[in-house]
Design a protein that fits this description.
Largest sheet: 3 strands, mixed
Strand order of the largest sheet: 4-3-5
Keywords: Cytoplasm, Glycolysis
Helix content: 40-55%
Order of helices and strands: HHHEEEEHHHHE
GO molecular function: diphosphate-fructose-6-phosphate 1-phosphotransferase activity
Number of strands: 5
Protein name: Pyrophosphate--fructose 6-phosphate 1-phosphotransferase subunit alpha
Strand content: 5-15%
Number of domains: 1
Organism: Zizania palustris
Length: 214
Amino acid sequence: MNKRAKEGKYKGKKLSSVCHFFGYQARGSLPSNFDCDYAYVLGHISMHILVAGLNGYMATVTNLNDLTNKWRCAAVPLTAMMSVKRHLRSPGAVPTGKPVIHPSPVDLQGKAYAVLREKASSFLLDDFYRTPGGIQFNGFEADVKPITLTVEDQDYLGDIEILQEYLEKVRSMVKPGCSREILKAAINSMSSVKDVLEVMSAPLNTELPLYNLN
């Protein structure tokens, strides 16, 4: 680079090398067929996000447990995954809000964790290798998916569509002209749903003081 600069063949900025530890990459296995398909689809969605001129979006794929041609692709705005945590910096101060991404803790009631608890004692002594060797790209085990994925049957975007369908049905049944009983039942039910959702989302939106007055 220095020689090319002296000869006038390079007029760019000075190049500085950066060292990086590739230990994890060296120890990791090759990507499986599922990993390759998943990464390819995410890259394809990202390309569409760029072409559309969008910013602040995340590529996402759901329904991964099905065939690849049935995967659901989407671009989700980061703001849709955020809530505002409010903090009190000092007594009497105006609370300041900080946007944060909704946490996604391990679902202790989910099927994947249930399988782990069921097999925990066996994992200590027995061998549970799906493929006793390296990653396979051909044959019976070539297209297997992660166990945590295969035991779950949840489809996030699909569930949202189901919710929208229910809301649309309620909207079609509860409109001017419906009976008083239907209207009261809808109000009571929706009020209960609202209360439950407020309780579930409260930790993400409550004020969190950073000091102790006691």
